[in-house]
Amino acid sequence: MLEVLRIGHRPDRDKRMTTHVCLTARALGADRALVDTADRALERRLGKVTESFGGAFEVKTGVKWRPLLKATDATVVHLTMYGENIATWEGPRWEALRRSPHVIVVVGSTKVPGELYELADVNAAVGNQPHSEVAALAIFLYLLQSGDALRREMAGGRLKIIPQERGKRVLDLVQFGEVTPDGEGFEL
Amino acid sequence: MLEVLRIGHRPDRDKRMTTHVCLTARALGADRALVDTADRALERRLGKVTESFGGAFEVKTGVKWRPLLKATDATVVHLTMYGENIATWEGPRWEALRRSPHVIVVVGSTKVPGELYELADVNAAVGNQPHSEVAALAIFLYLLQSGDALRREMAGGRLKIIPQERGKRVLDLVQFGEVTPDGEGFEL
């Protein structure tokens, strides 16, 4: 079980950033995104992506993260630019994480309560420079899965992208035809 | 020379996303971010980060990307979920890119003009799933530099993060003291 927990979400101000956190979690093979503030619109938005493009990814919002992190048996990795640089991690460190049956990767928004540093098993920095939490999450999930996440097919979707050297090709598996996408990201 | 070109930037709507694109470009070792729409506030915001945390990263906005891409000798890589999945790339493909003296990595916003697919030398997908352009950029830059970007020190800044197992430690190299950051990302 691989989960991403987003804390400090403000539905109005962080709409796009948290959407991108969730899209990144899904595209990089997480099973579920948990978001602290209730946000049904966010759940619906990501639900549509999964309906269209497959997989079993879920978004759950309104999650009380303090009791969750206190009670969980999962290995909790908090991504923060103040933590230990993952570039210095040796193989066994990654292997231990990969063996863990349940990992929760936590990303904050602008402000992160100091308590989180204590609740986390690991405070990990994807480089010790000011960063984007989306970028940090992407690289971390990529490395955690040894790059396999990008190769994985997601079953059960209606649409399937056929990689092209130029232009766009998308199959509609329900209508057995091609669709013509008019932009990136299907207007997320 | 490694540059990131962001097109389709709308200063009001995309403020945070484009800031995160630029932060990612800087943290992952790009020399410069180019942004199509003029946005002095964005230049200033990133200028402050570089002033504080070092390096020689620059942001240039108001860049006319069509003439730029038509005239450049650089290898132009457009990141798009419709492109060839980089997970299928073999080593020589990466090596060729690494040997190129000038690479421009292009990321769009929601809508990308079809012309871009023709102007790019490579249309590359960081997985063929709906994604975040910030996430895609992060993984691409990471792999392009074989992970070295996260190890690099950035010289000349005023502040230096000292990686910690718990909590935050930041040195002020000018005042020779410690500062107490009160949140992630220094309120970007």
Spatial order of strands in the largest sheet of chain A: 3-2-1-5-4-6
What is the molecular shape of chain A?
Answer: globular
Q: Give the name of the CATH architecture of the largest domain in chain A.
A: 3-Layer(aba) Sandwich
* CATH class (first level) name of the largest domain in chain A: Alpha Beta
The CATH topology annotation of the largest domain in chain A reads as Alpha/beta knot
Distance between the termini of chain A: 26 Å
Q: Which protein chains are joined by the largest interface, and how many residues does each one contribute?
A: A-B, 67 and 67 residues
Order of helices and strands of chain A: EHEHEHEHEHEHEEE
Tell me the Rg of chain A in angstroms: 17 Å
Instruction: Describe the largest sheet of chain A.
Output: 6 strands, parallel
Tell me the CATH superfamily of the largest domain in chain A.
SPOUT methyltransferase, trefoil knot domain
Average of pLDDT of chain A:
92
Spans of chain A of at least 5 consecutive residues whose pLDDT stays below 50 are 183-188
Summarize the amount of helix of chain A as a percent range.
25-40%
Oligomer status: homodimer
How many beta-strand runs of chain A?
9
What is the number of helical segments of chain A per DSSP (H or I, 4+ residues)? 6
* Secondary structure category of chain A: alpha/beta
Task: Provide the number of structural domains of chain A.
Answer: 2
* Percent of sequence in beta strands of chain A: 15-25%
